[in-house]
Amino acid sequence: MPPVPSQGLPQQEIVARLQEKLGARALKVTTCAGQSAVTIRPADLREALIFLRDDSALQFSWLMDVGGVDWMGYGGDEEQDAQEWRFEVAYQLYSMEKNHRIRIKVAVGVDGSGNAESVPSVWDLWGVANWMEREVWDLFGISFDGHPNLRRIMCHDEFVGHALRKDYPINRRQKLSRPSEMLLCGRHEWA
Amino acid sequence: MSHDLTKPSAVNGHTRGHGGTDVPPIATELLTLNIGPSHPATHGTLRLQVQLDGETIVNTGCEIGYLHRGYEKQCETVYYNQIVPYAERLNYCSPVHNSSAWCYAVEQLMGVEAPPRAQALRVITSEMARIIDHCVCIGTNLVDIGGLTNFWYMYNYREKMYDLYEELTGARMMVNYPRVGGVCLDAPDGWFDSVLRVMEELEEAVGEVHTLVARNRIFMDRTIGTGVITPEIARSHGVTGPCGRASGVNYDVRRAHPYWGYEKYDFEVPVLHGGDNYDRTIVRFLEMEQSRRIVEQAIKMIPDGPVLLDNPLVTLPPKDKVYNTMEGLINHFKLVMHGVRPPKGEIYSVTEGGNGELGFYLISDGGPIPWRVRIRPPCFANYSCFPKIVQGQMIADAVASLGTINIIAGELDR
Question: Which of the residues A13, B23, B241, B381 has an alpha carbon 20 to 30 A from that of B45?
């Protein structure tokens, strides 16, 4: 029977290496059910992800998932109430070489009129980020700087609002007047 | 002496090909062709637009979202156990795996583990689901590229699997079988024997179809070297599962992060290196064989014991306790009214779905309803590389590639 691959570096060591790199720019570290997450600002995202990808001890060469979270009204926790940002974008990284994982979360604040801060796109580092970022834009209204084709991906282009925000009512219906427009994506948007 | 018939370069005194003749170039223009969203070749609601130069693809656009049902939003309105039937609608070719994976995510967040017998039943049912998934993928894809016979063979065994599901759960496709903390029913008498019998027949059937296809000249000409996913594209686009393993990506969640006791079973992870439509089909045949081995081992090694946890905070008490004891009645009432409540926290839980890494990013606020459920569908990542791999290919090969990537619109669009 082939051996089970080793489980890579412990989460604390991965976090420690990243903290060494980012210093105080790693805003928050949380650990739950044996998985750690490091929260950073949008401005540090690309630096952190490139570091995690290229560091020889970490080698996070796979971006498995990008997903948004809306924390508005989250369960009356004091720490959570004090949180300055409303949204987070979570990047799930995996190292196939080392067989370990880490979650990087980007804190995304909102301005006075409820528009979310923008996050730098990583579509040129991982091709899959192209569609996943489009999905976060579609459902949360978080825009990605440098994205080549930031259109809605799940909802119709006439759709108003962002469906996964906590202030979007689940039973709201929208009238759509025509079939969705389709644009041939050019080769420019290939990573 | 010239050998006219063996030298294709000289016909009627002219040299073929570029440069030798004075034929003026014909003015051509690109043709834009729309495929879908409802088209027999897409096996789901996908829409493609291709620009063609003759029959060669020069540009592709993929539009998804035609089956978007607001799945993640709906998960934020119902109790954890009520998401089980929803989860089965993600990948409708292997429903029971998706719902088991969901229960596994919730269990991990709660820090509980399903009893060993329930874990083995989950392994058996989800490996059967993987076989069904691959049967559907291979069968329908071979229809698309001109081999109808295999479809009947493959669907025949899918039918037999569904009969087994019906015997086990009462439903054929959307079985609603797992629960947080285990599975809802133990196997009926003789069920394991029926499974073993079908697995024996399956070995034969898969072998037959494999023989029909693997060295088939028409099939090989059609699929070798078409729709190639290189290891670089696989890494960039997060292509996992059979598609990744056909491209040399040696990654299987069952091996990398064993769950439900997969570390106990002796199986191989087949890895091929061509990355083309041929390898993606063949790797599925090899995986069905491994799934069959896992099912047989799981049945042989299945432990005795309960199939649901005995924990009033997670699972309903047995009916005789509900009817005959006050405590059981209270536990039942509390769990039905107030639901399973994982502690505050978050988890990204992964399992090996039919098409690759199926991830649930689950955030709980301590209440009975999840705060956020993000699903990482394997198809979404696999499909995102599609424009790259069909570039410069024939339009008919794009249809074959669409089939071998095995896109399931249910989990693609959620």
Answer: B241
